[in-house]
Amino acid sequence: MKIRFLNTIRGSFILRIFLILCIPLAMPLTLSAQILNDSIHKHHKGMPLPFSIQESPKLVEAPVDSCLEDDVIVLTDSLVVIESNLTDSLLHYAARYLGIRYRYGGTSTSGFDCSGFTRHVFKQFGIELSRSSFDQGQQGVSINKELARPGDLIFFKGRNTKHNRIGHVGIVTENNNGTLTFIHASRSKGISFQTTENAYYRSRYIGIRRVVEFCDPTLSMAE
Question: Is 114 annotated in the active site?
């Protein structure tokens, strides 16, 4: 009886500590679907959301026998490997900032420029991007447009179209048969969605770079 009583107290204490420590940490990752939908409808009327809005998935450790080593993130020479279920987490995190204004040189919620925004988003997942869009365009590996997928970086010329030089960057959120939707910091609209069907961006398109490789741990476990 005494041992059972002590185990009950110990279990209650551990549960209390878990609730105190873990709930505040989980809150920033759980974005209300209603709030996010309201923000999207307010700033992007008529444009379908390129990924499903549910409660943001939680960050979880990879299974022991998965394609990852020991943890969620693995560094390689040219890519960062993370679990595929973190793709939605990254996109949901980016979508939190819909409507935030554009600010040249901006790297915070008071205003972002294009590379400041992509760098900020990826940094939350332990992935370091360079500060400028041009330098980000040298990271990772080049990917054909048809093979682009959510989480890839998409690059465009800047306002000076005479030179084939990177001047703008966004994050791919959907590939619909070669038509890409991306989230970026636009000078006119701030953080917003856009597609490569838009004539302005279609004429300035340069390429895709993959800095994150998403692996599916369930596949490696089944092998």
Answer: yes
For residues 5 and 12, is the Cβ–Cβ distance under 8 A? no
Please list, in sequence order, all residues whose beta carbon lies within 8 angstroms of the beta carbon of residue 37, skipping any fewer than 6 positions away: 49, 53
Closest by Cα among 68, 87, 75 to 127: 75
| Structural domains of the chain in order of their starting residue, each with its CATH number | 31-222 (3.90.1720.10)
Is 178 strand, coil or helix?
A: coil
Identify which of 116, 91, 93 has the alpha carbon closest to the alpha carbon of residue 103: 116
92 is catalytic: no
- Name the catalytic one among 67, 92, 114, 120: 114
If you average pLDDT over residues 96-117, what whole number do you get? 97
Q: What is the mean pLDDT of the chain?
A: 73
Q: Judge whether 60 and 85 are in contact, CB under 8 Å.
A: yes
Phi first, then psi: give them for residue 90, nearest 5 degrees.
Answer: -65, -45
**Which distant-in-sequence residues (6+ apart) come within 8 Å of 6 by Cβ?**
none
Show Cβ contacts of residue 103 under 8 Å, excluding neighbours closer than 6 positions: 110, 111, 112, 113
Residue 67 is among the residues annotated as catalytic for this protein? no
User: What does the pLDDT read at residue 82?
Assistant: 60
Q: Of residues 67, 92, 120, 168, which has the active-site annotation?
A: 168
